[in-house]
Automatic annotation (TrEMBL):
InterPro entries: CheY-like_superfamily, Sig_transdc_resp-reg_C-effctor, Sig_transdc_resp-reg_receiver, Tscrpt_reg_LuxR_C, WalR-like. SMART domains: HTH_LUXR (SM00421), REC (SM00448). Transmembrane segments: none annotated. It comes from Lentzea alba. GO terms for biological process: phosphorelay signal transduction system; regulation of DNA-templated transcription. Residues 3-119 form the Response regulatory domain. Keywords: DNA-binding, Phosphoprotein. Residues 133-199 form the HTH luxR-type domain. This is Response regulator transcription factor. GO terms for molecular function: DNA binding. The keyword ATP-binding does not apply.
Length: 201
């Protein structure tokens, strides 16, 4: 019997997943949580084989929780669920060394199979997402350009970014022009959208 901890903040979704998984003859949901900070304490208490974790959890996000499990309970395998099929999100998940990554809209049987594969020591990645991540490639922006874009995405204008980074406003405008060009964006807003969808900021 594969023991599963399920972390999902939406109650109806969590309930539906538990009901579906408990129909499987070889899978048992032994613990459920609605926020990321509860994952590790519940994992210590229930000793699951696989932790199925939604990436977007309150208090502590799913990837941070998965990293904590890997540090302290490496015997527990981690399978991430996400509703956002962003290549950058997959790259972050792989960088966090999770064992599996699946979109929430995958067929129910696919989730059960993914849990079995992850429990058996295999790595599972949604094929469409893997192709998208491969196609997208690496981020073309430098660390400084990413810093400028993150501040812009947070709503700061050029003078505010210049103050925050101890640079001139003209330098920040030059950075923004370079960023927009590198990302093939139409403008600053478009560049932010492109970078967010790729998971670069």
């Amino acid at each position: 019997m594969i023991r599963v901890l399920l972390a999902e903040d939406m109650h109806m979704v969590r309930g539906a997943l538990i009901a579906l998984l408990n129909l499987e003859p070889d899978i048992e949901v032994v613990a459920e949580v609605s926020s990321g900070d509860k994952i590790l304490p519940m994992a210590r208490q229930h000793k699951p084989d696989v932790a199925v974790i939604d990436i977007d959890l309150p208090i502590l996000d799913g990837l941070s929780a998965a990293a904590k499990i890997r540090e302290t309970m490496p015997e527990v395998r981690t399978l991430m669920l996400t509703s956002l099929g962003r290549p950058g999100t997959l790259r972050k998940a792989l960088a966090a060394r999770v064992d599996g990554f699946l979109l929430k809209d995958a067929p129910p049987g696919q989730l059960a199979d993914a849990i079995r594969d992850v429990a058996a020591g295999k790595r599972v990645v949604d094929s469409q997402l893997a192709l998208a991540a491969w196609d997208r490639g690496e981020c073309p922006l430098t660390d400084r350009e990413l810093e400028v874009l993150r501040l812009a995405a947070a709503g700061s204008d050029a003078p505010e970014i210049a103050t925050a980074l101890s640079l001139s406003t003209g330098t920040i405008r030059n950075y923004m022009t370079t960023i927009i060009t590198k990302l093939n964006g139409r403008n600053r807003v478009d560049a932010i959208r492109i970078a967010e969808e790729a998971g670069w900021i």
